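Continuing the batch. This is chain 6 of the set; chains 1 through 5 are on the previous pages. Same settings as before, nothing changed between runs. Recording input and output for traceability.
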Amino acid sequence: MPKQPGFFDLEDRYAELSKAGDPLEKLGNVVNFEAFRYRLNKALKRSDGSQGGRPAYDVVLMFKVLVLQSLYNLPDERTEFTIRDRLSFMRFLGIGVGDPVPDATTIWLFRDHLTQANAVEKLFARFELLLQEKGYLARSGQILDASLIAAPRQHHTRAEKEAIKSGQSADDIWPDEPAKAAQKDVDARWTVKFSAAKARGDGSTPLDLAIPVFGYKNHIGIDQRYGLIRRWDVSSAAEHDSQKFVSLLDRSNTARDVWADTAYRSKANETLLAEGGFVSRIHRKKARGKAMSVSTAKANNAKSRIRARVEHVFAVQKGTMGLFIRSIGLARARTRIGLANLTYNMKRLIYLNARVAPT
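Output for chain 6:
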């Protein structure tokens, strides 16, 4: 005979989760999610319920659902199932075993309403204020970089590709197929990512591997002291990294040093940095057709020891968080990537609270 559940069984199970080091419990203890309520209510502009209908889910609860999605790379349907399945998720959201759970459609609509209200930038800025209140100011200079974020690959005819490049919308390209048009992402683009190949057995110089990628780019700027994302932007995968240089510069950083790879070095950007009082730590390119000088190589290596810290952000987002764009269009991709950047900062804050005292 199966054992009948006891009155304190659920509390005992939660205690066991806490003893095992539930990461969501740590997140709930470190991040004050109530601080986002005002911004969420202002963005969503929900009715007061006077017209009847089922009461809407609490905005903070729904926002925490989106944080869970970003943390664990969950699509909407899987999110609904996992909330019902995991006690740690339920405790994080503050719901009981018998409480209603947001379904996949509700989650999608909530995220889409945030997209329409351009709310993610405001939520990110609100968390930045929380970081500053805790003493984690942007310090010791900034590091800029971008990373490709893959999206489901699109297959088009040559004529459709030309129409997309010319700026036509999906409805214009497929006017007689609305269902097909709704599933076509005309904002994402193809690009080629080059990766260094392993050395050949015969000792000859290996060729770089050209890897085609379809999707978007996450452009970020982190501060060198704490490794927190301070500025971010989103573009199609085909846009050059340097196009977001200006939007990523953080003038509130206490130091003026700016680290970046060679993609950001140009005469215009160097002039911009000099006029703004910044110190360029951007990698230098070698002269075309010539070998890189020893002094330039040494200077680049010294810069790389600091600049490489930004790669930790992308490793977490693409690794443990599994960042992948499942939505259609740049606006929705921006929301998903913005939520991933915000969630990364939340994870980073847990680490900083445990190991690094604000200075």
